[in-house]
Structures are given as C-alpha cells and as structure tokens.
Write a structure and sequence with these properties.
This protein has six helices and no strands. The chain has 166 residues and is mostly helical.
C-alpha cells in the first residue's frame, strides 16, 4: 500500500497511526497508574479499619473498579450497608469514608493522568471518556479519546482546516 500513496499522504498516515499508538499505550499506562493508586488507598484504608485479608480485598476492589459500569462503590457500599445491619458502625462508616476518598482522589487524578499519558487536554480527555462511555459503553473508553486524538492529529497534519481546538 505504501507505493500507492504520495509521500505527503504517507507522512500524514504515519503521524496519525503514531499518535493513536502513543495514545493507546498512554491509556494503558494511565489505567495501571490509577489502579495502583486505588489499590494503595484501599489497602491503607482497609488496614486502618483492621479488615482481615486487606491485600486480597484491595485487589478485588481494583479489579471491580476496572470493570465497566462497576466501581469501588460496588464493593464498598454494599459492604458498608451489611456492616451497619451487623451493628458494626465503625466499619460501616469507615468503608463509606474510604469509598468517598477513593472516588474524590480518582476524579481529581483521572483527567490529568489520562491527558498527560494520551497527549490531549484534561478537559478533552474527561469529556471524551464520559461521552464515549455513555454512547458505546466500555468500548467508548477507547473510542472517545481515539476520536479526539484523530481529530487533533488530522488538524495538526493540515488535513482538517478547523479553528476548533480540543
């Protein structure tokens, strides 16, 4: 296929594929970093609450957090409710606080981590992840940012003549 393309077209194609590859690797690096942060917070929180098997439960929390739709709340909130029913208010309140801390920290870190690893602005990363997920579900986590990256790259390569910057 290379011999059928002009040199300028090949350069633009290589630019686009290079940016997408960089963004794909960046997405995976960002997800690993955020999962490590979630694990660390969960482990510290569960250790403070003196929960047995804190390492295994932290791994479970991270695993559920990575799955589409589910999040840390899918584990911590029901566990907290059960703790309240078992009259263990200390554990119940601690789990709710842990859920809030993990959620707030992730919401603060997520746009910055994704944007710096994928090469797009934090706002564009956040919006593309959200819109992509809402429209396409789990696949949208990849497609949304990919569309933004392709758009930026096409604009940068001069293929799209647009003043809109994302």
């Amino acid at each position: 296929t290379d011999r059928h393309l002009k040199d300028s077209t090949k350069e633009k194609l290589y630019l686009i594929t290079g940016q997408l590859n960089k963004a794909g690797v960046g997405f995976i690096k960002a997800q690993i970093f955020l999962s490590a942060v979630t694990f660390l917070m969960a482990f510290i929180g569960l250790s403070i609450l003196q929960v047995p098997y804190a390492v295994l439960l932290s791994i479970l929390i991270v695993f559920v957090d990575v799955l589409p739709i589910l999040g840390t709340g899918s584990v911590l909130v029901p566990w907290a409710v059960i703790s309240f029913f078992q009259e263990n208010q200390f554990l119940g309140i601690g789990l709710i606080l842990l859920f809030i801390v993990i959620t707030v920290v992730r919401r603060i870190l997520e746009p910055k981590v994704f944007s710096s690893n994928m090469g797009i602005s934090p706002l564009a990363a956040l919006i593309s992840l959200f819109v992509g997920f809402k429209i396409l579900g789990f696949i949208g986590f990849f497609v949304g940012p990919a569309i933004v990256i392709v758009y930026d790259t096409l604009r940068e390569a001069g293929i799209l003549k647009s003043r809109w910057k994302i």
